[in-house]
Amino acid sequence: MAKQATTDKRQRRERGSINPDDIINGAFELAEQVGIDNLSMPLLGRHLGVGVTSIYWYFRKKDDLLNAMTDRALKQYVFATPYVEAKDWRETLGNHARTMRKTFLGNPILCDLILIRSALSPRAAKTGVVAVERAIESLAEAGLSPTDAFDTYSAISVHVRGSVVLQRLYDKNRSTDGAPGDFEETMVIDPDTAPLLAEASAEGHRIGASDDKNFEYGLNCILEHAARLIEQSKPTKATPRRKAAAR
């Protein structure tokens, strides 16, 4: 939930005493209070104690500032995400996915900048490509074909991002006048007409929710499918009869 911006003004800075890093740091501080959507140059100027023209000197429009914030956020995200290793690909890919999700859920600003806004500068996009290439390379080394390695990592990425964005939208909806977070909260489940749904709901299962249980189920389905593909790619040993026929 966006907090009300503080009304306490910082002491007015001297002209020319601010730099891009100061502005970006202040933008993250302010975004924690008001959210990315409500972040504005005039509000940031008041937060930093400078005239808005001092900000425009370095960032000509809000999108330029958000791109710079995304560059920094992406570095934090890449640093926090463990690599995928070929020798124990299933465990490391699972941990990779869980850490990605945990990192985004724990930092709404990171989620809004990278996943929801999803506008990367060329430098940030290049950083993302290098990280994805490394993961796909490890999966191919583990035994997947290049195409299957790509599809497996793509499925993991979509699964993680979908789970996080659904949770973020749920949180945003819940913060608006007490509105329900998702459609499931408005569903009336009658055991007489939907006995299976009622039984699963009574056991704590939620349909279409971005909770841990649904996330782990989907993640395990992707990992299991990749394991079958690797197993199928291994050469089979010929039986003695086949060897004789071949001779």
TrEMBL record:
Residues 40-59 bind DNA. The keyword DNA-binding applies. The keyword DNA-binding applies. InterPro entries: DNA-bd_HTH_TetR-type_CS, Homeodomain-like_sf, HTH-type_TetR-like_transc_reg, HTH_TetR, Repressor_TetR_C, Tet_transcr_reg_TetR-rel_C_sf. Keywords: DNA-binding, Transcription, Transcription regulation. Residues 17-77 form the HTH tetR-type domain. PANTHER family: HTH-TYPE TRANSCRIPTIONAL REGULATOR RUTR, HTH-TYPE TRANSCRIPTIONAL REPRESSOR FATR. This is TetR family transcriptional regulator.
